[in-house]
Amino acid sequence: MKTANLLLFRKSIQYENGKSFEILNKEEKKIILDRIRLNYSRKNKLYFDFMNLTEKNLIDLIKFYDENSNLKSSNYIFSSDIIIHNLDNEISIEVNKILKEKSTK
């Protein structure tokens, strides 16, 4: 969620004529983060992000995670380029939905 928050922050600011301004308010950002949290709470979502790893790589990754208690205590999740890319795309889709709703009002 920290990564989602950073990606959303980047997408919520627009630059025009040398000035920056926010295109989403606090409530709209909260809605987007809630939708992302719901989507990524499903186990199969993350499964697909790791499905291309070999069985040995997955076992090594799990072993590394289990052996490092500081990773467990911080709720750290291993990310990959695929996870970040998919997360970035989902945030873009959600931002565009909200902007489209705003433009039709």
Question: Order of SSEs, N→C?
Answer: HEEHHHHH
The shape, in one word, is elongated
Describe the main β-sheet briefly.
2 strands, antiparallel
Query: Count of helical segments?
Result: 6
Which regions are unreliable across 5 or more consecutive residues at pLDDT < 50? none
* Share of residues in helices: over 70%
Please count the beta strands (DSSP E, at least 2 residues each).
Answer: 2
Mean residue pLDDT: 82
Oligomer: single chain
Strand order of the largest sheet: 1-2
Bin the strand percentage.
5-15%
Radius of gyration: 17 Å
Q: Please report the distance between the alpha carbons of the first and last residues.
A: 30 Å
Supply the helix-strand structural class.
mainly alpha
